[in-house]
Specification:
Layout lengths: L19 H5 L2 H18 L5 H24 L5 H22 L4 H16 L15 H7 L6 H21 L2 H4 L4 H46 L1
Helix pairs in contact: 2-3, 2-4, 4-5, 4-7, 5-9, 7-9
Length: 226
């Protein structure tokens, strides 16, 4: 018996094109928008209700740990999302430093953090790779994605110090039953971490300025040779 031949069937998959507006609605970016909303809502209650502010700020900080997860899980990574994540982090800390109004420290830290953001996110999304050839005291901070004693110290100083200062100024630490001696000790460790971080940020700025000057000199020499 001859086998019957069946016509070959072809399956076609429809690929949906991605547009800029599509990226705006990525789940990780929606989380970023939600974080901004929580930060601004909390800021309205900054001094009126410290407990409410801490809750709202804590929720947005917790959400910060989910945007990267969903970006990888849903394959929705984007340079805009990476940019937005750092912008939201800086926005939250800037509002904290501005409202705390720590003499000299507040304006210095705010300006430094935004300057470093401008440098590290200038024309490239892979900003962490920019520290591959950094001196050891800088490189140690970035080892294993900050998951080391140096990285933990710096990240704690950058992210936790302003919220800890707020807890002290609003007496939230006392309300939580934290002894004054312990609160002061924690503050000291956070200050050390923030100073260390400022040194790393300062090195980053100098490296960026040097790279600009080298590029300008190369461009000027190329024009002179023509």
């Amino acid at each position: 018996h001859k086998k019957k031949k069946f016509p070959k069937t072809t399956t076609t998959t429809t690929m949906t094109s991605c547009t800029p507006s599509t990226i705006l609605w990525y789940v990780p970016n929606l989380i970023g928008y939600a974080r901004i909303t929580l930060i601004l809502a909390g800021w309205l209650w900054f001094w009126e209700s410290p407990a409410l502010f801490l809750w709202l700020y804590g929720i947005q900080a917790t959400l910060d740990g989910f945007d990267g997860y969903f970006a990888r899980k849903l394959r929705q990574t984007s340079r805009f999302g990476a940019w937005l994540d750092v912008v939201v982090d800086n926005l939250g800390r800037s509002l904290l430093w501005y409202s705390l109004a720590v003499p000299l420290a507040s304006p210095f830290v705010m300006c430094l953090e935004w300057l470093v953001f401008a440098c590290t996110h200038d024309a490239t999304g892979a900003w962490k790779s920019q520290f591959d050839n950094a001196p050891s005291w800088v490189a140690k901070v970035f080892e294993a994605g900050f998951k080391n004693p140096y990285g933990t110290l710096v990240i704690s100083g950058i992210h936790v110090l302003p919220i800890w200062l707020y807890a002290q100024q609003s007496n939230a630490d006392a309300a939580l039953g934290i002894p004054d001696a312990l609160s002061t000790m924690i503050l000291g460790v956070l200050v050390v971490g923030r100073v260390y971080g400022a040194c790393v940020e300062g090195w980053t700025l100098m490296r960026h300025v040097k790279a600009l000057l080298v590029e300008d000199a190369r461009s000027a020499n190329d024009k002179a040779d023509k």
